[in-house]
Amino acid sequence: MSAPKGPFRLVTVNTAPERAKRLIGRVADLLKDRYEIIHVDNCDSIDQVEAKVKEHQPNVLFSASMWSDEQAKQIHDIARSVVPDIKLHAIPEGLQVKYGPDAIVDYLVEKVPVLLDS
Questions:
Q1: Which residue, among 7, 10, 4, 1, has the nearest Cα to 108 in the 3D structure?
Q2: pLDDT value for 118
Q3: What stretches in the chain show pLDDT beneath 50?
């Protein structure tokens, strides 16, 4: 068996930073045999994205499900302007509210390998 890919430095954009940290921790744990994912920081607002992406130079950024499609695009455009080859993913709007945190974890465990292997 080969070593996990990575490390991937991940920044999240989520108005609930503790929840983001917990959920990403669960995803990282479930995928740890395949990927080393390090949650380096969270942006509580869109205003923080540019500074935190500059500071951490992450490989990956996730925008959480509380952001609209337009806001997620804005977040991703800001991140890409700082780190052009960053891997981006927007968790579908409303997923957390409709289905709860376990749905977010299940969703990301399915989507993250596709993203990280791209």
A1: 10
A2: 87
A3: none
Q: Find, among 37, 45, 44, the residue nearest to 87 by Cα.
A: 37
Identify which of 24, 17, 2, 34 has the alpha carbon closest to the alpha carbon of residue 116: 34
Contact 31, 37 (CB under 8 A): yes
For residue 61, what pLDDT is reported? Answer: 97
Continuous segment of H or E residues that includes residue 9? strand 5-13
Q: Does domain 5-116 have CATH number 3.40.50.2300?
A: yes
- What burial class does residue 4 get, using C-beta atoms within 10 Å of its C-beta: 0-12 exposed, 13-18 middle, 19+ buried? middle
Q: What is the pLDDT of residue 12?
A: 97
- What does the alpha-carbon distance between residue 19 and residue 62 come to, in Å, rounded to a whole number? 13
Sequence ranges of the domains in the chain? 5-116
